[in-house]
Amino acid sequence: MSRLKISAISYLNTAPLMWDFEHGEAGAHLNSDISYTIPSACAEALRAGTADIGIIPAAAYTTIPDLAIIPDVAIAARHAVRSILLVTRKVAKKPVDPSWAQVRTVALDTSSMTSVALAKILFAKWLGGPRDYKPMAPDLDTMLSACDAALLIGDPALQVDRARYFTLDLAEEWQARTGKSFVFAFWAIRNQSLAGRDSQAIAEVFKRSRDHGLLQKNLEAIAQEWAPRLGLTIEAIRVYLTHNIHYYLDPPCLEGLKLYYRLGAEVGALPQADGLRFV
């Protein structure tokens, strides 16, 4: 049987999920190979069939047929997430947070479909209606030279000096508006790739890797490794991984995910979701 091709994301928030693959025997147990990319490219690899398993943006699940979700594992948030930010410049004559309703143009970090759709939902439903959106690479100065505000995700968002800019944490805004958790990404596998394989055993490998990555000693090792890489303090990394990111696709997260799909379809940010299918 051919080796499973796994497409993963090279962001800090995925590090606990990848613990066994990078430090243990998970890859050997699955007979798999791993490549790292950005969230949107993970989705494209599954769509094209060049990957069997990927940690895909939640939005991508609505656009790729014949996927099964690996249960219980996610990158989610129950309140502020810190790594999904809408950013605009501070103006000397306006020392307080701006009315986001006054923002007319938004540069969108194209790395994740999920955050782009979330921004569009929040604007359409609660922040004054749709905007003019411009997909751009995640360079904040370039984005803000072209647009009133910029959407940044992942590590570039964590590195924003929030004392210099007005920022809106989109997970926090979602929770405030809906009372729901928000799911950014989860593992999904092509149904064709499950043929002849033990799907439950595959799911358990990913759950165990998450559980091992969240052990205190391993979180500390991740913080020590990533702090200099991102130019952040070890404590900032530690807080982010233990308080901002929620790694379980639990019932509150599933409720939030279903609402996200419904609202995304209502405002035209996402196609209609057919329902959640699990391994």
Description of the structure:
It is a single chain. It is built from eleven helices and eleven strands. Helix 4 packs across helix 7 and helix 9 (216-230) crosses helix 10. The strands form two sheets. The chain has a six-stranded mixed β-sheet. A five-stranded mixed β-sheet has the order 7-6-8-5-9, with helices on both faces. It has helices at 19-23, 26-30, 39-48, 113-126, 140-146, 154-158, 170-178, 199-213, 216-230, 234-244, 251-266; strands at residues 4-9, 32-37, 53-57, 67-77, 84-89, 105-109, 132-136, 149-153, 165-169, 182-190, 246-249. Helix 4 (113-126) links the parallel strand 6 (105-109) and strand 7. By secondary structure, it is α/β, with parallel strands linked by helices. The model has no long low-confidence stretch (mean pLDDT 92). It is 40% helix and 24% strand. The radius of gyration is 19 Å and the shape is globular.
* Strand line-up across the major sheet: 2-1-3-10-4-11
Count every helix, treating DSSP H or I runs of 4 or more residues as helices: 11
**Average pLDDT rating:** 92
Helix-strand string? EHHEHEEEEHEHEHEHEHHHEH
Compose a concise summary of this entry.
40% of the residues lie in helices and 24% in strands.
Give me some keywords for this one:
279 residues, alpha/beta, 5-stranded mixed sheet, 11 helices, globular
Write the layout of secondary structure elements.
Layout (H helix, E strand, L loop, with lengths): L3 E6 L9 H5 L2 H5 L1 E6 L1 H10 L4 E5 L9 E11 L6 E6 L15 E5 L3 H14 L5 E5 L3 H7 L2 E5 H5 L6 E5 H9 L3 E9 L8 H15 L2 H15 L3 H11 L1 E4 L1 H16 L13
Parallel strand pairs: 1-2, 1-3, 6-7, 6-8
Antiparallel strand pairs: 3-10, 4-10, 4-11, 5-8, 5-9
